[in-house]
Amino acid sequence: MHESHMTAWIDSSHLAGANATYIEDLYESYLRNPSSVSDEWQRCFSDMNGGEAETVHSAVQDYFRRVAMDGHARQSMVEVKTDIRQIRVLQLINAYRSYGHQVAKLDPLGLWQRDEVLELSPAFYELSEGDLDTRFNVGSYQGGLPMMSLRDLLSSLQKTYCATIGAEYMHMNSIEEKRWIQARLEAAEGHPNLDAQERRQVLCDLTAAEGLERYLGAKFPGAKRFSLEGGDMLVPMVKALFREASRAGTEEAVMGMAHRGRLNMLINVLGKRPQELFDEFAGKHGESWGTGDVKYHMGFSSDFATNSGHIHLALAFNPSHLEIVNPVVMGSVRARLDRLKDPSGIKVLPITIHGDSAMAGQGVVAETFNLSQTRAFSVGGTVRIVINNQIGFTTSNPQDTRSTLYCTDVAKMVGAPIFHVNGDDPDAVLFVTKLALEYRNTFHRDVVIDLVCYRRNGHNEADEPSATQPLMYQKIKQHPTTRQLYGERLAYCGVVTDAEVEQLVNDYRNALDKGDCVVPEWRPMGQQYQQNWTPYLGHDWDIGYDSRCSRQQLQALGEAICRYPQEFELQRQVQKVYDDRLLMSRGEKLVDWGFAENLAYASLVSAGYRVRLTGQDSGRGTFFHRHAVVFNQKDGQRHVPLEALLPNGQGFEVYDSALSEEAVLAFEYGYATAAPSGLTIWEAQFGDFANGAQVVIDQFVSSGEQKWGRLCGLTLLLPHGYEGQGPEHSSARPERYLQLCAQHNMQICVPTTPAQVFHMLRRQMVRPLRRPLIVFTPKSLLRHPLAVSSLDELADGHFMNVIPEQDTHDPAAVTRVVLCAGKVYYDLLDARRKGDLKQVVIVRIEQLYPFPHAELAEVLAPYPHVREFVWCQEEPQNQGAWYCSQHHFREVMPEGARLFYAGRPASASPAVGYISLHLKQQKALVEDALGQS
């Protein structure tokens, strides 16, 4: 800072003499972190620099000391006192912005015990009663005039920050975003400007929200419905979100929520016919091919009419794992944005609705926040609404549900603004709702609305909450509903009459009695949303498909995906990989796994399919095999050859994901459910890492079609195979997936050649069938000298569910048939060849489910005389395919034949940790399978 700038500034300011120490400390904080001081001080210190670079701080400190000791620079004590008070008034304003929410009137029941916040008292800043009528410059505060009395300023601050809205935003890093929020909060001064029509609409929506719950409670007493009562404002606020979003250009909205209020959302927002819900309560279910799910897990789709046009709504299906639906919603939104070619996120709005305890308690919430601004998973920001009924499943003590002041504190990890609002103040709720959406659309970041309300009934309607929360439920029984309170307020203001309020109640009940749609804005779903899945409906596994790809096309594609910018200098090993791939594409070298996989993607992209691949090291490949992304060693520039296949570069995308399995896999599931015409792949770094996403596999991947009719073509690549890497990196636990298999719900494949992985990936798209594909991919086979294929096998072949014996042999001389899957085949093959065991044949089962009975029977037809059949696996006996699949093996064996097991003994751990023991076990199981033991 130049001395001339500082002298001029100090001479014209209150920052002289006795204030020097205070200013020095403030300025030091500014130098460390500009956002640590108020906006006024940031501008002051920035102006002092005259736009020039900052000088050494010690020189500034010395100058402040000289000024403090220079009598000529001092003002009179009266002036100094006035200036100190001005500084402290600005500090007071900043304190209200930072801490006002801690004393805001957020609890409709008035039960919250709030600690006193000393920083909000004028006395904390040595401002006295005598200062209340003194006028001060209020800096950037926009709740009044530039000069206000301290008394008026305090009144304005309390209305803005301590009434029924509690805003948390000072933790945000962006000064621009903080100023943006300040401008809108402070200008409103706690008095949202809603016109009479909006208020009447809110009252109408509140009447519907309350009316449905009362109707269901009377008609089906004691039935579980997870009532919204107490959080009734959710219905008006969500409908307001749709209207505002449509005005901003949004065409679709995707919502995820748990149980509470879902039935209300279905009937009063999305327009499901009440009669359909009543039939479900009465046990009248229509004929369905699936097993179905309970009412409060179901989703729905419809269109919603606004003055700006129709907006398409989709409420995601959700299991009882509550917050797991959040990344599913965001994945669906990302797919829709990609389809609409809208990277900004304006055209599709994600809305997630949380419970207070679940928001704080479930780790997938933090995982999803972490994904929100990453390249692979950003959706332009999510509006997150918390139905905060102040108690969790059974507890009323926040100390038992979280270790933070608010259930929403997890959102601070990404600097999201949080707006706490009293659910019994509909005007404030609507103001916050509009503000949150505008923030999301402006800055494309997550925003949280904490709707502080209560739960009028127990966790479900069969629960008696007063047993554990006696005081709270005594208060609730005496507390009027939000509709009652708002109706009285509007009647008092002359917006409606008491008679009109009563008429709304009667009209809604009559509409429910008729059983037809009760949402005036409901419209039937547009054709474009119904047609997305039409080509994939009604097909079974045996449907014919043509997956041929000519040798000439493969050669051209192979050369294309080996190109990279001329100026690129590849890393030495990567250069060798690309040199070899050029030879493979010309037929001068056999194709390895990595090249076959890339060729599969290239053939699909060139045919118009989108390919999306994510995982923790998917660009390069965990095992240095894929190299779909290459980097210039000179400047780190990135290049993706597969993106260059199409002029717009949008046919293929690969991302190295965050270190998350649960949220990322859920996101990709959501993406796949909204993008049936593209190949969506999630790859585990090691197959056992999928353990961290077991909820997604159990609740969505394996059962989504049966429960909800949701088709999904998601592909999981799970590296699997025993190479002596210990318990954590050997087994992808195939037994878990096989145990989940039923009703042809998904495919379990264990390919052993590059040609097989090529055809398997192509089949997943070319065959008009969309069901999850679980692939146990290899590690050591990626560079195994025998695990190679010719270009002709890629061009002319198809995926073989069963691969017969490949060596020449005399079927009549065969006395033993070994069945296996995966890498162990190559160990068996090597040992058999070394032992010259011509009486043993090895058959590979490449698809374990749906089990290929017909193909296997055909392969085994030459061996009707064989009595010894062996299933060989690397996994322990209680794991792998043995227990889940042996009945399938027996079905196709000749009559009188016996089936034996060859593998590791049963174990509580997936694999041993000592390499010597691993090798001993591997040798023993191979010898046992071949009859050498």
Distance between the termini: 85 Å
Radius of gyration: 34 Å
Silhouette:
elongated
- How is the CATH topology of the largest domain named? Rossmann fold
- Please give the domain count: 4
Beta-strand share of residues? 5-15%
Structure description:
The protein is α/β, with parallel strands linked by helices. It folds into 4 domains: 140 residues, no CATH class; 333 residues, Thiamin diphosphate (ThDP)-binding fold, Pyr/PP domains (Rossmann fold), CATH 3.40.50; 246 residues, 3-Layer(aba) Sandwich (Rossmann fold), CATH 3.40.50.12470; 127 residues, Rossmann fold. A 9-stranded mixed sheet has the order 3-9-10-8-7-4-6-5-11. The N terminus is likely disordered. This is oxoglutarate dehydrogenase (succinyl-transferring). Its cofactor is thiamine diphosphate. InterPro entries: 2-oxogl_dehyd_N, 2oxoglutarate_DH_E1, DH_E1, KGD_C_sf, ODO-1/KGD_C, THDP-binding, Transketolase-like_Pyr-bd.
Short description:
The chain has 933 residues and is α/β, with parallel strands linked by helices. It folds into 4 domains: 3-111 and 120-150, no CATH class; 196-528, Thiamin diphosphate (ThDP)-binding fold, Pyr/PP domains (Rossmann fold), CATH 3.40.50; 551-796, 3-Layer(aba) Sandwich (Rossmann fold); 804-930, Multifunctional 2-oxoglutarate metabolism enzyme, C-terminal domain (Rossmann fold, 3-Layer(aba) Sandwich), CATH 3.40.50. The protein contains 32 helices and 25 strands.
